[in-house]
Write a structure and sequence with these properties.
The structure holds two protein chains of two kinds.
Chain A: E1 4-7, E2 10-13, E3 19-25, E4 33-38, E5 44-49, E6 53-54, E7 62-67, E8 70-75, E9 85-90, E10 97-98, E11 102-106
Parallel strand pairs in A: 2-11
Antiparallel strand pairs in A: 1-3, 3-8, 4-5, 4-9, 5-6, 7-8, 9-10, 9-11
Chain B: E1 3-7, E2 11-12, E3 18-25, E4 34-39, E5 45-51, E6 58-60, E7 68-73, E8 78-83, E9 92-100, E10 106-110, E11 114-118
Parallel strand pairs in B: 2-11
Antiparallel strand pairs in B: 1-3, 3-8, 4-5, 4-9, 5-6, 7-8, 9-10, 9-11
């Protein structure tokens, strides 16, 4: 199985700040990396697919990048609704696996 | 509007069985692969398995293979997860998801989730 390691696990940040969440795969995944946001009520929303493609309706302050084993999600200027959990997910091979999550918290 | 609504979650004893349902609306259900994903308390997300558009092909995570079965009824726009011989580790919130197969295995819609608790 491909292991996905996210960092940091917790990220205190302020409104308007630029933040980056990292995701490292245990082997190369050829850009087959997706990102999701989970709100405290459990609602899960897709953000980015295939490393850098924004899901329709997702604000342009969200962006993704990476290659090989290392990927990142960047939020350019934090809005109040961005404080949530974020998960990466690889779909390069089965079983599909997720990172352990990053909790973006208000500083 | 796409909606996925799960039901059937409950308290079940170890070794018991349970069947979850997910009713889909707002899209042509028979055109999409569907998956189940779960989230254990305080932990991350775990992919359970998937089913193709006509229900003829399934694929499962090794951790649940031979205990869980995914099926679908396209006439009812409903996805199912039959859980058998459940263990305490199966305690989780179970999410029904739609897959954008042309984009790989990208979950573009999620249900609100349903809680399953395995305990004696």
């Amino acid at each position: 199985d491909i292991q996905m390691t996210q960092s940091p696990s917790s990220l205190p940040a302020s409104l308007g700040e630029r933040v980056t969440i990292s995701c490292r795969a245990s082997q190369g995944i050829s850009n087959n990396l997706n990102w999701y946001q989970q709100k405290p009520d459990g609602t899960i929303k897709p953000l980015i697919y295939y490393t850098s493609n924004l899901q329709s309706g997702v604000p342009s302050r969200f962006s993704g990048s990476g290659s090989g084993t290392d990927y990142s999600l960047t939020i350019s200027s934090l809005e109040p609704e961005d404080f949530a959990m974020y998960y990466c997910q690889q779909d390069a091979s089965f079983p599909l696996t997720f990172g352990s999550g990053t909790k973006l918290e208000i500083k | 509007e796409v909606q996925l609504v799960e039901s059937g979650g409950s308290l079940v004893q170890p070794g018991g069985s349970l069947k979850l349902s997910c009713v889909a609306s707002g899209f042509t259900f028979s055109n999409y692969w569907m998956d189940w994903v779960r989230q254990t308390p305080g932990k991350s997300l775990e992919w359970i398995g998937e089913i193709n558009t006509d229900g003829s092909k399934t694929n499962y995570a090794p951790s649940i293979k031979d205990r869980f079965t995914i099926s679908r009824d396209n006439a009812k726009s409903t996805l199912y997860l039959q859980m058998s011989n459940v263990k305490s580790d199966d305690t989780a919130i179970y999410y029904c998801t739609r897959i954008r197969r042309e984009l790989g295995h990208y979950f573009d819609y999620w249900g609100q989730g349903v809680m399953v608790t395995v305990s004696s």
